[in-house]
Amino acid sequence: MSKFSMIQIINKKRDGGTLSAEEIRWFVEEYTKGNVPDYQASALLMAIYFQKMDREETFELTRAMRDSGEVMDLSAIGGIKVDKHSTGGVGDKTTLIVAPLAAACGVPVAKMSGRGLGFTGGTIDKLESIPGFKTSMESRAFVDQVNAIGIAVAGQTAQIAAADKKLYALRDVTATVDNMSLIASSIMSKKLASGSDAIVLDVKCGSGAFMEEQEKAEELAQMMVDIGKDDGKTVIAVLTDMSQPLGRAVGNSLEVIEAIDTLKGKGPLDISHLSLELAAWMVLAAGKASDFEEAKAMVTDALLSGKALEKFKEFVAAQGGDPAVAENYGMFPESAFCQEIYAGATGYVTRVDARIIGKASQLSGAGREKKEDSVDPAAGIYLYKKVGDPIRGGALLARVFGNDDDKVYQAAEEAKKAFTISKEEPAEKPVLVKKVIR
Ligand code: URA
Fold first, then answer.
1. Ligand 1 site: residues with CB under 6 angstroms?
2. Is residue 248 flagged as an active site residue?
3. Rounded Cα distance, 334 and 131, in Å
């Protein structure tokens, strides 16, 4: 005899009731085991979508999903382990910069990352564009590497938050992705299972983000911070702009090159600024500085002194990659085709729509449509102009790269639509929308 009835649980949520911790845990466990059919799970998800979940229900759902798979034990690593997570952005290569920056300041960085699905690329795909780089690691080797050099970034195993994997796939096909509690619990179940003591969240808003409106992004950030706090973790969230791509490079190897340039102090301003900010919060969360200003000074020194670049090379070498790529970008895979996009008018660039550039980059071969798809490491888009730049008609706006001529052509046709040029100079839009929520 089953402890609960799925029909009663669906009924309760449908009518606006509050589910108990036991009911939520029972549902997650039984669904993971295959004892609850997809049609009942879908009905419950839809009831949650309309009736919402309160803070306690959201926390219980997160914990149940965390416990549905492997929970990493990082206790063999000394110090306060800090993770960093971005809710997904176009051209967001900050992990590649922030992780070595924080590690160079003595923060143990033990990071599990995902592959990209849809138009936002994943850190693992980006790292794999480095010749020889391995992202699949046994947990022992992962822990040993963090103890030895202070940093490891590995692909998230299929066993992490097993229930979330099943439920996310179901949400995707039942129009139930877009619910605050379901998104927050999905992200945080994986973060809590990854075993770090503190988490710095980069929550995006704007056209290329999950939550386009700032208010909603803020609500999501607060909810994730609350979940972390309720679990006894230090969680800090920063709200950042994703109305245009971050930096100038979008696509796997293009982004790694831009990240290395940033570690050399030659990166675009928005990426450099955001990376220092996020790394400083990690240093503070790890207890390596007494206040944010001190933490910011430490990461700035790690950047300017070249220590963070050295840490990046050490990290690449430890995971089987050739650190010489940092000096010789010709070692990255090159694309066979390139299409250029030119400005049709003179004035100022007032819009470079992140979502359109993201989709165009995916079309060029840099992203996946289905999770079985492979990515082209050389494909992507390089932006020569961004919002606020003055431009003359006929000047170069962007280059689109890839290894499939047709796809590159189509991607360039799409990417053109991302740009707006107007006579009026636009107001400056900072990358950091709201400093911090904790
Ligand atoms: N990312 C996740 O991992 N889960 C969601 O529900 C949305 C974004």
1. 168, 177, 182-183, 186-187, 210
2. no
3. 12
Q: Which of 80, 64, 432, 36 is nearest to 269 (CA)?
A: 432
Instruction: Give pTM, 2 decimals.
Output: 0.94
According to DSSP, the β-strands at 390-391 and 198-205 are unpaired
List, for residues 16-37, the tens digit of each pLDDT value. Answer: 999 999 999 999 999 999 999 9
Question: Shortest CA distance to 80 belongs to which of 102, 98, 112, 113?
Answer: 102
Catalytic residue among 113, 186, 196, 243: 186
Expressed in angstroms, the distance from the first to the final Cα of the chain is 44
As a whole number, mean pLDDT of residues 266-283 equals 97
Residue 358: left if φ>0, alpha if ψ -120 to 50, beta else—which one? Answer: alpha
Please tell me the residue having the least CA distance from ligand 1 atom 5.
183
Between helix 162-172 and helix 21-33 the angle, nearest 10°, is 80
How do residues 62-78 score in pLDDT, each as one tens digit?
Answer: 999 999 999 999 999 99
Pairing of strands 198-205, 347-352: unpaired
How high is the pLDDT of residue 1?
Answer: 56
Classify residue 364 by its DSSP letter.
Answer: I
Mean pLDDT for 145-166 is 93
Strand, helix or coil for residue 145? helix
Residue 224: pLDDT above 60? yes
